[in-house]
Write a structure and sequence with these properties.
By secondary structure, this protein is an alpha/beta fold. The chain contains 12 helices and 10 strands. Strand 7, helix 9 and strand 8 form a beta-alpha-beta unit. The protein binds S-adenosylmethionine.
Length: about 325
C-alpha cells in the first residue's frame, strides 16, 4: 500500500497535485494544477461575457478533488467588474483523500485573497468537511470603480457522481439551475463509466437552457476524446474545443443552443478541426453508455465495441499466407 505522502506531486507552475493510487493518474496536467484550472476550466466560461451581467452565477464542480477549479473561478470572479452578488457552487467528490489537502491548496500564494476571505467564515472547508459553507469575497461593481461583497456558498457533497447526478437531475430545486458544469473525472480510458451519454443527459437537464439568441449553460472538460465529444453532441450540445495546455490537446466546451437554428455561440468558441469532426463522427466517436448508472467498466466497453462494430465494421484481416501465382 503506497504511503499517502508519496501521492503528492509539484507541477511545473509550482502548484501541488495528487497521484491517484487506483488509476495511477495524476489529478492534473504536469504543466500546472492551477494553470489547468484556469486554461481548461475557467477561461472557457468567458466570464467577462457570460457572467458579468448576471446577479447570481451557479456552477457544479464534478470531481472537485483539490478544489482548484472552484478556487480559480472565485479568484477570477473577484477581479472582474460585474453585477454578481451571489455565487453558488455544488461540489461533488467521492473520496476523502483530496479533501484532506484543501488547506495545502488554499495556502498557494495565488489564493491568498480567497484564503483570507474564507479562513474566519468557514474554517471547516479547509479540513474538507462536507455540507454547506458560506463566506464573502470582495469583488468590483459593474463600473469597476467601487468594491462590493459577493456572497459565496459551496455545498460539498461526498458521494459517487453516478449516484448524485441522476438524483439532482430529477430534483426541481436543481433542474435548469446551473450556468456551468466542470467535469474533471479521471480519463475516459480509465473510467469510461464517468463519461457516458446518460450522465451528460443529466447535465443537460441541470443546466440553464438557451433563451432567445443567448446560448444556455455549458459543460467544460479537459478531455478531447472523440467518444466524449460525440456523447455530448448526441445530447444536443454544440461542441467546441478549448486551448491546448502543455503537451496535451485542448479540451472540450459543450454549449446548450437551439441546435438546428444555430444560435451564434460567439467568438470565444474554437471550432473543431476537420480531423476532429471526422473522428467524432466515426468509429472512435461511438460513445459510452450506462443507462442504469451502475454498469461495470467491462460491460460498458463491451457494449461500446459491439456498437462500433455495427456502425463502423472493421474489415476482417486475413492473415493466412498469400498463395504465389504461378508464372
Ligand atoms: C482528475 S481528479 C479532479 C481534480 C480536481 N478537479 C482538482 O481540482 O483537484 C478526479 C477526481 O475525481 C474523484 N472521483 C473519482 N471517481 C469519482 C466518482 N465516481 N464520483 C465522484 N468523484 C470521483 C477523484 O477522487 C478525484 O478527486
Amino acid at each position: 500500500m503506497p504511503n499517502e505522502a508519496d501521492t503528492i506531486h509539484i507541477t511545473a507552475d509550482g502548484s501541488i497535485t495528487l497521484k491517484d493510487i487506483e488509476t495511477g493518474e495524476l489529478f492534473h496536467n504536469r504543466a500546472g494544477a492551477y494553470t489547468e484550472a484556469l486554461v481548461n476550466f475557467v477561461q472557457p466560461l468567458y466570464l467577462h461575457k457570460h457572467a458579468v451581467e448576471k446577479q447570481e452565477y451557479a456552477v457544479m464542480d464534478v470531481c472537485f478533488g483539490l478544489g482548484y477549479n472552484t478556487f480559480a473561478l472565485l479568484t477570477e470572479l473577484a477581479q472582474l467588474p460585474s453585477k454578481i452578488e451571489r455565487v453558488q457552487v455544488v461540489a461533488i467528490e467521492k473520496n476523502e483523500l483530496p479533501l484532506r489537502h484543501l488547506n495545502d491548496v488554499l495556502n498557494d500564494k495565488r489564493f491568498v485573497p480567497l484564503n483570507d476571505a474564507m479562513k474566519n467564515s468557514c474554517p471547516a472547508l479547509f479540513d474538507g468537511e462536507i455540507g454547506k459553507h458560506h463566506f464573502s469575497i470582495v469583488g468590483y461593481g459593474a463600473g469597476g470603480s467601487s468594491s462590493k461583497e459577493i456572497r459565496v456558498e459551496i455545498n460539498l457533497i461526498r458521494e459517487d457522481l453516478r449516484q448524485v447526478i441522476p438524483r439532482l437531475a430529477n430534483d426541481a430545486d436543481f433542474i435548469g439551475s446551473f450556468d456551468a458544469i466542470f467535469h474533471d473525472a479521471f480519463s475516459p480510458l480509465r473510467a469510461p463509466y464517468l463519461w457516458t451519454v446518460d450522465l451528460f443527459q443529466c447535465y443537460k437537464r441541470l443546466l440553464k437552457n438557451y433563451q432567445g439568441n443567448n446560448p444556455g449553460g455549458r459543460v467544460v472538460t479537459y478531455s478531447a476524446a472523440s467518444a466524449v465529444r460525440s456523447a455530448l453532441e448526441q445530447c444536443g450540445f454544440c461542441i467546441r474545443r478549448t486551448e491546448a495546455l502543455g503537451a496535451k490537446n485542448g479540451g472540450t466546451l459543450a454549449i446548450l443552443t437551439d441546435g438546428e437554428a444555430g444560435i451564434q455561440v460567439g467568438d470565444e468558441a474554437l471550432e473543431l478541426l476537420e480531423h476532429e469532426v471526422l473522428k467524432m463522427h466515426g468509429r472512435p466517436g461511438v460513445p459510452h453508455r450506462d443507462p442504469t448508472f451502475q454498469d461495470t467498466w467491462k460491460n460498458i466497453q463491451i457494449a461500446r465495441e459491439a456498437e462500433q462494430d455495427v456502425l463502423f465494421p472493421v474489415p476482417k484481416v486475413n492473415y493466412s499466407p498469400r498463395r504465389r501465382r504461378r508464372k
